[in-house]
């Protein structure tokens, strides 16, 4: 996987330098300057946030975008925010992560059999990228897919990620007709890939009980089963 790792590193360096969306550039940099009071002493990343994980992954987890005070602060997607707390606990329970928390880029977290990315690489105002921003960023996840040769399952966290994954697959030549509908534990075969839907682990969903840990665990159990990855191949 050395060649894959090198190619992903090159792509990620390109992602980090991206300035294609003026609104997102302005917002991510404003957040990095103003900061949240509880993180006032920290240096924010304030740039696009690339994907990360195992270059030999069978499962790609797709999110919406980095959180303003999560990935936009730490430089790693789903790291340092409440959604990430839910995600990494679930990945750890499913055997995809060596630990149950992710707080910084150097916290020792390792993923096995799993790679994590997002449809949009910059933190958007109100967590709502525009369609134009989505489409501008989409080629990055298309390229990520092309550089992850073993990925066969995409776990889409929320309807935006589901739609973005379908658009990315269509751009790669795999068009789903009719368009599969999103729902929790929705499943669709698109070309050589299986899409699995999950409610996003946002506080809006987890605080209200729309998404429970048991529901979230079911998604990753299904992802492991569909991808054919055995638990004993994963570090714990």
List keywords for this structure.
Uracil-DNA Glycosylase, subunit E, 11% strand, disordered C terminus, 8 helices, alpha/beta
Compose a concise summary of this entry.
The protein is an alpha/beta fold and 236 residues long.
What does it look like?
Residues 232-236 have low confidence and may be disordered. Strand 5 (187-190) and strand 6 (193-198) form a beta hairpin. The chain is globular. The chain contains eight helices and six strands, in the order ααββααβαβαββαα. With 236 residues, it is of the alpha/beta class. The longest helix has 17 residues, at 131-147. The chain has a six-stranded mixed sheet, sandwiched between helices. It has one domain (2-228): Uracil-DNA glycosylase-like domain (Uracil-DNA Glycosylase, subunit E, 3-Layer(aba) Sandwich). It has helices at 2-16, 22-34, 71-74, 82-93, 131-147, 159-171, 203-208, 213-227; strands spanning 52-53, 59-63, 114-118, 153-157, 187-190, 193-198. The two termini are 21 Å apart.
